[in-house]
Amino acid sequence: MGLTALAKQIQRIARSGLVGAAMALAAASSVASPVDLPGELPNMAGLGIGTTTEYAGGKDRMVGVVPGLRYVTPGGRLIEWYGPYAQFNFGGLTGFQWGPAASLRLGRSGVDDPVVSRIHDIDTTVEAGGWIGYEYLHEGSIPFRLRGGINVMTNAGIVYGGARVTANASAWVPVHRRVYAGLGLGATWVSDSFNRTYFGVTQADSAASGLPVYNPGGGLEQYTGWLALLYRIDKNWYAGAMVYAQRLAGDAADSPIVTQRGTRNQITYGIGLGYAWR
């Protein structure tokens, strides 16, 4: 496999990490069943397969496989790794949580769209930052979990400047002894440098592709939402399915890359399998 093909495959796997990550998250963050002790969610390793778009704002699709992990260290610290995103929790397993985070920010190169392929390539890069959140466990005949938080990530000017800030909230509730339902909502704010990199069209891009020059500013970049079902097969095995939706907003949604060649509505979906242990 040549370097270009290898790089594209890595991007596909990472991009579809949204699916595998979601499935691992579904398994790892599931609400405790009636027979579980409060707060004692299991460790879990998962694998997901699904389909998503080739790049943000695009409409051509691809399929990929990616792993995920939720692990509580002997010291009681939580490590979460969901596809391209990983975080470490210095706080409690419930209540206030905070810590460092890292993410693989996907680039754009070798895409199928014949026009977008003529626009500047974007390298895949690593983001770093931190997060803070709160997790609430409701104990009772129908237990449920609520989790919310904010993370701030930056690429320190390697590919884009400024920061990317995401706020999100999620809930998990049992609907049957073996079935759990989850939903989540979120929104992301980005710097003008981020939008220029991923949604801008330079003079050179316009001459090569025929798209109009576009110089976006920063602001609200997208809304997100997801729905998931998790089935507990037995003591250790879980299976799940998930749909994750992104709706581009603001200057990102107005980019000709989106309005003329793609779509502001991005849908990711897939299935996954997870193994849990204590």
Automatic annotation (TrEMBL):
Top-rank lineage group of the source organism: Bacteria
InterPro entries: MipA
UniProt subcellular location: Cell outer membrane
Stretch forming the signal peptide: 1-32
Keyword terms, alphabetized: Cell outer membrane, Membrane, Signal
Main location: membrane
Family designation: Belongs to the MipA/OmpV family.
Name by which UniProt lists this protein: MltA-interacting MipA
